[in-house]
Amino acid sequence: MRVGYDARPIVYRWTGMRTYTLNLVRELLRIAPEFEAWLYFHKGEPDSALGKHPRLRWRAVRALTGWWWTFFQVPSVLRRDRVQLFHADYIVPPLAPCPTIVTMHDAISAMFIEPADLKTRLLTNALTLLSLHRSVGVLVPSESARRDVQRLFKVPARKIFVTPYGVSDMFRPVPKDLAEKRVAERFGIKGRFILTVNFFRPRKNAPVLAAAFRELKRRRVPVDRLVFVGAAPEPLRLTILNAAREHAKDVVFTGYLPDEWLPTFYSAAEVFAFPSRYEGFGLPVLEAMACGTPVVAGDAPAVNEIVKGVALLVPPNDWLALADALEQVLTDEGLAEDLRRKGLTLAASFTWERTASLTWQVYRRFVESLT
Question: Is the pLDDT of residue 271 over 70?
Fold first, then answer.
């Protein structure tokens, strides 16, 4: 079965979507001998993370703009390449000559919880709606995301398939003294710190976390730094620093880090904080747990669905409640150890092999129905 992918999330390093597509393709190549992956991209170069494989092919499809690429260039190439199924995130080529599968990681575009100008919002929602209804199958990572997509985009329930994400094998505990040493030597981060990642969107509530950190310092809770891993625009950095006020000097921004650094940071942290208002899944929470790090998270529906009882959950916008929960973990070693133990067990139950197996069942269902 020849399956084409929009591989721009891999090439452009679009964080969560890159993680999803990389691991999905890698596992499908491993478990499905009849599977071929054709990875299409617009600009840049193929990513070496997938390595070489006889059933893996990269295809550079050049175009003046991304929209032209999606609407016209890719469909013509898919026809020449005799692709049997095309899979993309959120938006598929409307003129694709083959059946399409679309993954909706969330329904944020229709929920008005992220800022966007009216033109962009209308265009994005129109193309998403078109993609959902022209695709033969819609993949979502959680029951919460399924309900949102069905309700907001009026997608028939029979077309939606829940395929939960997995945790990569690279996410495992690094001995804490070694992790702390590496982080100190490479980044100059010493002492006890709170960690968060992928914080650049407003719904991630980074300023709320900074305010909670300021409160912890006011209470003299034993914590030294607040560390943000990931790229961030300068206005957001300034907003975060303003929220930390007199403790802005103790806030650290690492910028974008290669994936291989993440287990070290998770393992070195005292607690992982993730006060997001909305997620389709919340993969960083499970990655932190897989590294043995206690988690405090916002009580968003999808996060609650996945980690209730294994993380401390708080109202996402309540910085005082967030400070209270973080203080509990930072001062109660028994609680922290209980969260570590439960988190390791939970994270081990989420594998990319299961994601790939469920996805392969969807692929076969629709391709075989056409032959």
Answer: yes
